[in-house]
Automatic annotation (TrEMBL):
Protein name stated in the entry: Threonine synthase
Pfam families: PALP
Modified residues (N6-(pyridoxal phosphate)lysine): K133
Pathway it works in: Amino-acid biosynthesis; L-threonine biosynthesis; L-threonine from L-aspartate: step 5/5
GO BP term, example: threonine biosynthetic process
Signal peptide residues on this chain, from the entry's feature table: none
Organism for this UniProt entry: Desulfobaculum xiamenense
Family, similarity comment: Belongs to the threonine synthase family.
Source species, domain of life: Bacteria
UniProt-listed PANTHER family: THREONINE SYNTHASE FAMILY MEMBER, THREONINE SYNTHASE-LIKE 2
């Protein structure tokens, strides 16, 4: 039995692998795109095959044993150390409480509304900055600590483009660093919710706004990363992707490593998370930790759907084209040219080669379905953001298209906490959506506070009379019966 709190002795040989030309580079410094061809990188452990010396059963025992660890380095995503970024020392690892987010089965009422569909939400909004981005940041910042230690660096400036969640996570982890990692975030002006904007400001990051959308911000930070000494923290940073693989590992562990009959729904956005999740499942399959791959469904809004359009075409007719985005309540989905699309294509091909046709699919949903998916989930005890609503809308659409069976268990990725996007709920209840969203609220779904008694009555009545009058109004509204 492995010792629960013992930090792993294994050290891998990580290298950047270019999906464009196949070039390989060492990890002594940060790379984002291939110097040779400009292609997107994956990070691979050149020593991965040595992990096969342990059986799948042995690995399951290792990870299950670590689940009770009290060592900060192993409590979070690095419980799965050997599968992610096994080059760091224990002192490098940052832990702020990320990972181990709960999987909450849907209520019987919600399941019944969806034809008896078995389903659950994985609440990644219960990460420290209230989104899944903390998984990637924990890995990226741990590697920055590793670089500072091994290269004796004085300071690193970390930058990112964001629609909200990335900036909140980057600023949070930078604020925890020892002062040698500074943080600057670049946001699209007016397109980040007040709640999300408050997070990097509160963490002390330099917040810079750019007119336009996320894609415009991304071009700015790419230019900075190509020409200046900065650490890019967007999903072009392959260390970020490694950290997000922990989502797949946790789902597998929650279901006792049995993923047969499971379907994972993931909003695509910049395509980093769906890339990481497929990569994580494939790693576990290769090591025999799991013996069946779950099906993976990517979901996109019709206001930002380039990946859906690519896979909607017949294989021989597929061509990649970015799209111009329109406003979306799932703000992280407002990306018309996802950086990680080459990674999606790479892993989707590998996935289908093992699990067969239909093991990876992309569905398109409307903005109306996304916001109403969020409202539906949260009226049944969940804390889903609009991206989680996008996943529920994707499940409903997959059922309409007969792509999923009610007996399959659908695991929906609620990427952030509902409170980050509460303004969209208010807009729905108050019917104040701009026309560009294409959303027409259903009054039956609205829920607004009701005034029990007019303020003037409080001034007119004696205190005891006021209490009785208020109580009587409540009785009439709720239809209460006397004892």
């Amino acid at each position: 039995m492995p010792e629960m709190n013992a930090f792993p002795a294994y050290r891998g040989r990580m290298e950047y692998f270019c999906l464009g030309c196949g070039a390989r580079y060492g990890t002594e410094e940060l790379h984002y795109t291939c110097p040779n061809c400009g292609g997107v990188f994956l990070l691979r452990d050149a020593g991965f095959d040595t992990l096969r010396e342990r059986s799948g059963e042995e690995w399951r025992t290792v990870f299950d044993t670590r689940a009770g660890a009290k060592s900060d380095a192993l409590r979070g995503i690095f419980r799965f150390y050997e599968l992610m970024a096994p080059v760091m020392d224990e002192a490098d690892i940052v832990y702020l409480g990320e990972g181990n987010t709960p999987i909450i089965s849907s209520s019987n009422r919600l399941s019944a509304q969806l034809g008896g569909q078995r389903m659950a939400f994985k609440n990644d909004g219960q990460n420290p900055s209230a989104s899944f981005k903390d998984r990637g940041m924990a890995c990226a910042f741990s590697f920055l600590n590793h670089l500072i230690r091994t290269r004796n660096l004085d300071e690193i400036l970390a930058v990112c483009a964001s629609t909200g969640d990335t900036s909140a996570a980057a600023a949070l982890y930078a604020s925890y660093a020892d002062g040698r990692i500074k943080s600057a975030v670049i946001l699209p002006q007016g397109k980040v919710t007040p709640q999300q904007l408050a997070q990097p400001l509160g963490s002390g990051a330099v917040v810079l706004e750019v007119p336009g959308v996320f894609d415009d911000c991304m071009k700015v930070v790419e230019h900075l990363a190509d020409n200046y000494q900065v650490a890019l923290l967007n999903s072009k940073n392959a260390w970020r992707i490694l950290g997000q693989e922990s989502y797949a590992f946790e789902v597998a562990q929650w279901y006792d490593w049995d993923l047969a009959g499971k379907a994972i729904f993931v909003p695509i956005g910049n395509a980093g998370n769906i890339t990481a999740i497929m990569s994580g499942f494939l790693k576990m399959f290769e090591l025999g930790i799991i013996t069946a791959l779950p099906r993976v469904f990517g979901v996109q809004s019709h206001h930002a759907d380039p990946v859906y359009r690519y896979y909607a075409a017949q294989p021989q007719e597929r061509e990649w084209h970015p799209v111009t985005v329109e406003p979306s309540v799932a703000q992280a989905a407002m990306i018309g040219n996802p950086v990680s699309f080459p990674r999606v294509r790479h892993f989707a091909e590998r996935y289908e080669a093992i699990a067969g046709p239909g093991s990876f699919q992309v569905v398109q949903v409307t903005e109306q379905a996304i916001i109403e998916g969020m409202l539906l989930a949260n009226r049944h005890g969940h804390i889903s953001c609009t991206q989680g609503g996008e996943c529920l809308a994707g499940l409903i659409r997959a059922r309409e298209l007969r792509l999923i069976d009610a007996e399959e268990t659908a695991v929906l990725d609620a990427t952030a906490h509902m409170l980050k996007f509460i303004g969209f709920q208010d807009m729905y209840f108050e019917n104040t959506f701009p026309q560009s969203y294409g959303i027409t609220p259903d009054p039956a779904r609205s829920n607004r506070p009701e005034l029990v008694i007019e303020a003037a009555e409080k001034e007119r009545l004696a205190p005891a009379e006021y209490t009785v009058a208020c109580a009587q109004s409540v009785v009439e509204r709720l239809g209460l019966k006397a004892r």
